[in-house]
UniProtKB/TrEMBL annotation, chain A:
Residues 1-162 form the AAA domain. It comes from the Bacteria. The lineage of its organism: Bacteria, Pseudomonadati, Pseudomonadota, Alphaproteobacteria, Rhodospirillales. This is Cellulose biosynthesis protein BcsQ. Pfam families: AAA_31 (PF13614).
TrEMBL record, chain B:
Signal peptide: none annotated. This is CHAD domain-containing protein. Residues 217-511 form the CHAD domain. PANTHER family: CHAD DOMAIN-CONTAINING PROTEIN (PTHR39339:SF1), SLR1444 PROTEIN (PTHR39339). Coiled coil: none annotated. It holds the Pfam family CHAD. It comes from the Bacteria. InterPro entries: CHAD_dom, CHAD_dom_sf. SMART domains: CHAD.
Length: 245, 522
């Protein structure tokens, strides 16, 4: 079983869209996939039309009093299950603070038999929860906008990993919400691609199909499979999958 | 992640509309338009997936194609991935769950088309207020056909309910309603199995294991005929796949049956069949076997090629490519030779005459002096004799014995092994099974010892042939030398392992078992 986290401390970078669409692509390729919506806003759960509610809330999960197995919901897609968000997740930081660093990693261990891939959709913050997530993951995938500010946050993430002494975690970046007509986007992408270590070349374009996810409440690959973003997510998944092996 | 499905038997006249009306109270019923699917089922010639309770199918709808592995017991899909079969070998599945499930079962065998199911499917989903699916329903009308055939036979109409994880309540409510109107299929066999029934194919009708059932009261002659007829069936059943070169196992099974026939002629038939019959059959089957030697050798090299490549340093591996090309082209020629054999009048006459002799011809011919002996008596004495020979030859081998002695012992062991297998059904399965297993592991070392010598010599010879044909650049020759050397390196290990394994085969426990089972008390 592999574990990947879709993360950026900055909000509005297309994080949830990435988590939803990558999970969908992974499931379509035959991997038994579980996506855990850790963001109390519950956008991922909304996209999959699942109520953002978990019996017993985050407290019981962290304490190990809930069997994760009983909380999982099947999505409308083959091979793809969801562990929904819950408003109580806003306190997850405090809950995990009382636990060992590897608590989350331990919680997901029993799921190994059932799933080939776990995807964490992470809240946009840098905190106790983030470091728990990083320790439980094989790969950290950071969506970035092609802007200077967005790229700067990457240095902060690297610093955090170093300070927390988190090793063996692959860090991968890619650009999302790319507007090909903007010269600045083009320049930044070119410059970054040349020197960015661990950067994946597949870009996700800024497109109306991605915005429509909120209306369709489905991954783009489902309702607009032949559009540019759907194909880009597929390509992005292919590259990530290659690096996971 | 798997969910237990429930299916219902429907009449041809039941429609999706009837179902939708029935379940209107559970949620919003959404009915997609009817789609046609073609499900092509595959298995190896010897039904390896079926034996493991699985079926593999390629499901096609318009230009969408998915490979699925199904469980035959629970009628559910265990894994699925987009794609289609290209060659039918394990490589088709890339990496992932399907490969993990299938490769260890099929190994080097090729998947062959077994059955086509044509399904008209109306997919339905029952959703909650948010539009989330609570469970799915498939209304299916299925027809079965032989692969590629147009003649179809109706399998019936069924409704399959697939619960979705975390939404059990809704599914239970629906089942309660459906139970009131329709017959639930409690022991629903997978459509694959029902389809095979309809096209009159019996899964598991071939196994490379020798399946013989002898009765202790049979005469030696009756037993001999049965052994030979069973082997003859195996030879004939593997002809088509060998001629078409579907996978290397056809020829392998074909040759094993030839070898077993020859072994039976010398081990079992002496004194049972007339000497003249034995002598002629020995010559005939020897001739057939010889025609297939080259192809088998080349098959083995090609199957082992990844290992051969892996035996030398990575930087030299690419130089072996011309070697592989050469093997492939030689294998093509050797295969043509085997095709000619199977198509030849002489071959056909040998097999026909042999079958005729075994079924009726023998009545007119003379009998051996042991022909009327109860088979159990014959088996006891022949196995005991062969076992004593193994022990005598094995015991005489020390560190300095020449390689020939190990080669002779290997052949004696093979004879014992075949005798044990022919007569297996006359003895308690557990006890004789243990002895076969003990012998097998001992045989493996002897086999490795022999193979290392033969193969390293053969590679040198192939190198010479390639040089003569100007098909071997110097680098390739050097790399082949490394391969030959790495094979020879293994020989010393096999020789050391021999003594350990022979000791394990010589324990009092094994000795006592042989004595108890086979030594006559007279």
């Amino acid at each position: 079983m592999k574990v990947i986290s879709i993360y950026n401390m900055k909000g509005g970078v297309g994080k949830t869209a990435t988590a939803v669409n990558l999970s969908y692509q992974a499931a379509q390729s035959g991997l038994r996939t579980l996506i855990w919506d850790l963001d109390p806003q519950g956008a991922t759960s909304f996209y999959f039309r699942v109520k953002p509610k978990v019996k017993g809330g985050g407290k019981k999960i962290v304490k190990g009093k809930s069997d994760l197995d009983d909380l999982i919901k099947g999505t409308d897609y083959t091979n793809l299950d969801l562990l929904p968000a819950d408003f109580s997740y806003r306190d997850l930081d405090l809950r995990f603070a009382d636990e060992k660093d590897s608590r989350l990693k331990k919680l997901i261990t029993p799921l190994k038999k059932e799933y080939d891939l776990i995807v964490f959709d992470c809240p946009p913050s840098i905190s106790e929860l983030s470091q728990q997530i990083f320790r439980a993951s094989d790969m950290l995938i950071v969506p970035m906008l092609p802007t200077t500010l967005s790229i700067r946050t990457l240095d902060q993430i690297r610093l955090f990993l170093k300070e927390e002494k988190i090793k063996g975690l692959k860090l991968r970046t890619f650009f999302s919400m790319v507007d090909r007509r903007k010269k600045m986007h083009k320049d930044i992408i070119e410059e970054f691609a040349a020197k960015g270590k661990g950067h994946i070349e597949a870009n996700i374009p800024y497109a109306s199909a991605v915005e429509k996810m909120g209306i369709e409440r489905a991954p783009v690959g489902d309702f607009a499979p032949r559009t540019a973003p759907a194909l880009s997510y597929r390509e992005l998944w292919r590259e990530i999958n290659k690096e996971l092996d | 992640m798997s969910r237990e499905t429930v299916s219902y038997q429907l009449a041809d006249t039941d429609t999706a509309l009837d179902i939708a009306k029935l379940l209107a109270g559970v949620g919003k019923v959404e009915t997609a338009s009817e789609r046609s699917f073609k499900l092509s089922y595959y298995d190896t010639f010897d039904w390896r997936l079926f034996d493991a309770g699985k079926a593999l199918c390629v499901s096609q709808h318009e230009d969408q194609s998915d490979i699925q592995v199904e469980s035959l017991n629970a009628d559910e899909i265990l894994a699925s991935m987009p794609g289609r079969l290209k060659t039918g070998f394990a490589d088709d599945f890339g990496s992932g769950r399907i490969r993990d499930m299938v490769e260890e079962l099929i190994d080097v065998r090729r998947l062959m088309a077994r059955l086509d199911l044509h399904a008209l499917r109306t997919a339905m989903a029952v959703r909650d207020k948010e539009g989330k699916a609570l469970f799915r329903l498939n209304l299916e009308s299925i027809e079965a056909a032989k692969p590629g055939s147009r003649a179809r036979k109706a399998l019936g109409v069924r409704l399959v309910l697939e619960p979705i994880r975390g939404y059990a309540k809704a599914a239970e409510k629906a089942m309660a309603l459906l139970d009131d109107s329709y017959q639930r299929k409690t022991e629903d066999r997978a459509p694959f199995l029902k389809g095979l029934d309809l096209i009159k194919v019996t899964p598991g009708d071939y196994s490379s294991k020798l399946k013989l059932h002898l009765e202790p009261h049979m005469t030696a002659q009756q037993a001999s005929h049965l052994v030979h007829l069973t082997l003859l069936d195996t030879i004939e059943r593997n002809e088509e796949g060998t001629a078409a070169n579907i996978d290397a196992e056809f020829l392998h099974d074909f040759r094993v049956a030839i070898r077993r026939t020859r072994s039976a002629l010398s081990q079992l038939d002496k004194g049972v069949l007339p000497p003249k019959v034995i002598a002629k059959a020995k010559d005939d089957f020897k001739w057939i076997g010889q025609q297939t030697n080259d192809m088998r050798d080349l098959d083995v090299y090609l199957l082992d090629f990844p290992k051969i490549q892996g035996s030398i340093s990575e930087s030299y591996r690419d130089y072996l490519t011309p070697f592989k090309d050469y093997l492939v082209s030689k294998q093509g020629k050797a295969h043509a030779q085997v095709q000619r054999l199977i198509g030849s009048a002489r071959y056909r006459k040998i097999l026909n005459d042999w079958r005729h002799y075994l079924t009726e011809g023998h009545q007119k011919s003379s009998r051996g002096e042991d022909a009327e002996l109860p088979v159990k008596e014959l088996a006891d004495s022949r196995i005991w004799k062969a076992y004593r020979k193994v022990m005598k030859e094995g015991g005489a081998i020390d560190e300095d014995s020449p390689a020939e002695m190990l080669h002779d012992l290997r052949i004696t062991c093979k004879k014992l092994r075949y005798l044990l297998e022919f007569f297996q059904s006359l003895y308690p399965a557990g006890e004789i099974g243990k002895l076969i297993k003990a012998l097998k592991s001992f045989q493996n070392v002897l086999g490795e010892f022999q193979d290392t010598e033969v193969q390293s010599n053969a590679i040198l010879q192939l190198g010479r042939d390639m040089a003569e044909a100007k098909k071997a650049p110097v680098e390739t020759q050097m790399a082949m030398g490394m391969v030959a050397d790495s094979i020879l390196q293994k020989q010393g290990g096999a020789r050391r392992a021999f003594h350990v394994r022979f000791d394990a085969f010589s324990t009092d426990e094994v000795k006592d078992s042989f004595k108890k089972l086979f030594k006559s008390r007279g």
